[in-house]
Each structure stands twice: as structure tokens, then as C-alpha cells.
Amino acid sequence: MTVVVTGGAGFIGGALVRRLLDMGCRVAAIDDLSGGKAASLPHHPQLTLHRLCIGADSAPQVQAIIQTADLVYHLASPIGVNLAHSARFDVVESILGSGTAVVAACRKYRVPLVITSSSEVYGQGLPRPIREADPVALDISPRWGYAAAKLALEHLAAGLYHEQGVPTWLVRPFNIAGPRQRPETGLVVASFTAAAAAGQPLHIHGDGSQVRSFLHVEDGVDALTTIAFNPTLTGRPVNMGSETPTSILELAEMVRRVRGLDVPILKTPLEDVFDGGFTHAQIRIPDITLLKSATGWQPKRSLEEAVRDGFEEIEAGTKPTLRAGGTRL
Ligand SMILES: NC(=O)c1ccc[n+]([C@@H]2O[C@H](COP(=O)([O-])OP(=O)(O)OC[C@H]3O[C@@H](n4cnc5c(N)ncnc54)[C@H](O)[C@@H]3O)[C@@H](O)[C@H]2O)c1
């Protein structure tokens, strides 16, 4: 089987590529290396890495790569709340441009498609586990540009299934964590482990009472490979995440504890984050009943394991060092 993975040199994409190779697939990874690293992928006779920025300009090359595929995973995307706040135009343009190019190629050659949307589409969240059918409420604040573009991509992909008849799966990952996640994205587990390993303070937005759940990237890859070709999950959003709630303060304390690193925890009042322009989401936990009941999948690894694996990778010297406030676009 030949599988295309866009964003294949990234954090989740790289783990997915390695798993697909282990499963005996031939893999074509497409990545512009704006965030991902070619060196994070193995040298493997069944793997080809195409260095390409997916968008309107590269649509013919994208079509040529997808033409002969049996399945496409579209993961390429700018990522991170920092970027959503600081580069809304580029983020929205990139998600819509790359998504449109990939969906058009899958439509033309009738290739099944899995896309990664995001839990960001749930906006400020709910005080209980969020179901796929819960209403999506996004306003025009900069943070929700990423979410709105992901939602538009979901609609495009849903139309690809319901109107064009191409099998399509719309995955909404919640926070994913583990080795090879880039701290410069601002994603909290990677930022905390990189900072702690460098002896730097852990920066928390607000008082740290905000609650998230974190899925180990290998559990995420289990889910992504299980979802594809499941006929009961086509054409509708599916939550992918952990149900175990953790406050950001608890996470910071866990990161210090697992390696005995006594770095300070610094709290910035919410009104001072992004010069007062920060949009806060207090609780975001998924209801994953749909994915579990349709596939039998469930998370097997703990957050502490993801933190340990992240530290191990830093200690092995394979991880880039922390760059304060770095962006990728
Ligand atoms: N990591 C999470 O917690 C999380 C949560 C929700 C959703 N997601 C989604 O999962 C997917 C993968 O996220 P990740 O954490 O691996 O991010 P990542 O930044 O590590 O990987 C994304 C990859 O896409 C590449 N890329 C970006 N734009 C591109 C373009 N136009 N053409 C070609 N390559 C391009 C980057 O170079 C990078 O390697 C994304 O779609 C993201 O929105 C991730």
C-alpha cells in the first residue's frame, strides 16, 4: 500500500511515517520543512521525502504525488497558539491553501483522505468533556483564525465524502505530546520540558488552573492508523485525545518532578499575555466515546510517559534547543 503523509517531517507526521514503514507501507512524505526536520525521518528504501510547500502554486506536483496513492494523511499545517496570534494571515492562508490543493488532488484521483483538524474548533471549550456534536462558537479574535480555517477544511473534506463519494475522515486531535515535538511551537509539554532541561523557568499563562488532557503521540498514531478505512467514521468529525484532565500547574510540577529539576514556575497574568490580546480557554477535555466504540482504540500511555520520552530525546541530543518566541512562517 502506498500512503502519502503531508507534514511527514513534523512531530505527529514523523511518528506516523515511522509506523507506516513498520507496517510495510510505501510512504511519500511531503513537507516544506518550515517546521519539520528531514533528519527526524529514517533512511528507508520505502520512504521518499518531497520537499514541497503545498498550496495553489504547487498543486500540479501535489497531484502527481497523490495520483498513485492508496491513502493520504493531510497533516501539513502551521501550528501553535503563538503563531495563531502573531501571524493570522499566514496561518489561515496556509491551512486553506494546502487543504484545498490536497482535497482537489484526492477528488481528482479518488484517493481516500484523513485530515487532522484540531480541538481548537471548540473555541473556549466546555466545563465537561466535549462531544463532536457540541456547537462550535468562534468569534473574530486572532486565536480563532487557525480554528476557523481548520473548520473550513473539515467542511471541504466532508463535502468530498458526502457529495463526491471519496472516503474521508476528519480527526480533531486534542493536545498531543511526546518526543520530537518542537518547543518553539509554544505547545506546553514541549516548551516546559525544553525549558526545564535547559535550567530555565517554566512560563505559565495565568494561574495555571486551566485544564487540558494530553495524548501520547504513539497513542495518536495508533488512532490515526485505526481510523483509516473504518467505514463507520467517514465524513464526520472524530475527537482524538486523552480523557485524563491535568491542570497546567500540575503539568509544570510533573515536568520538574520527573527529572528532579528545581526550575522556577513563573505566572504571567492573563491580561498581560500577547499584550492583552490573548483569548483564554479554561477547560478542554474530549469525549472520545465515538472513536473508542467504533474502533476499540483507547489511550495506553500516560502523560508522565510522554514527559519522560520528551526528556529522553532531549538528553540523547536529538532535539533542537529552545528558541524563545521562535516562529516558523
Ligand atoms: N500537536 C498537537 O497537539 C495537535 C493538536 C491538534 C491538531 N494538530 C494537527 O495535527 C497536525 C500535525 O501537527 P504537528 O504537531 O505534527 O505539527 P508540526 O509543526 O510538527 O508538523 C506540521 C508539519 O507540516 C509542515 N508544513 C506546514 N505547512 C506546510 C505546507 N504548506 N506544505 C508542506 N508542509 C507544510 C511543517 O514543516 C511541519 O513539518 C497539524 O495539522 C495540526 O494542526 C496537532
Provide a brief overview of the structure.
With 329 residues, the chain is α/β, with parallel strands linked by helices. It has two domains: 2-176 and 216-240, Rossmann fold; 177-213 and 244-287 and 296-315, UDP-galactose 4-epimerase, domain 1 (Alpha-Beta Complex), CATH 3.90.25.10. It has ten helices and 14 strands.
Tags for this entry?
329 residues, UDP-galactose 4-epimerase, domain 1, 7-stranded parallel β-sheet, globular, binds nicotinamide-adenine-dinucleotide
Describe this structure in words.
- With 329 residues, the chain is an alpha/beta fold.
- It has two domains: 200 residues, 3-Layer(aba) Sandwich (Rossmann fold), CATH 3.40.50.720; 101 residues, UDP-galactose 4-epimerase, domain 1 (Alpha-Beta Complex).
- It is 36% helix and 16% strand.
- The chain contains ten helices and 14 strands.
- The strands form four sheets. Strands 3-2-1-4-5-6-11 form a seven-stranded parallel β-sheet, with helices on both faces.
- α4 runs parallel beside α5 and α6 crosses α10.
- The longest helix is centred in the N-terminal third of the chain and has 22 residues.
- The protein starts with a strand and ends in a 14-residue tail after the last helix.
- The C terminus is likely disordered.
- The site of nicotinamide-adenine-dinucleotide has 32 residues, from α1, β2, α4 and β7.
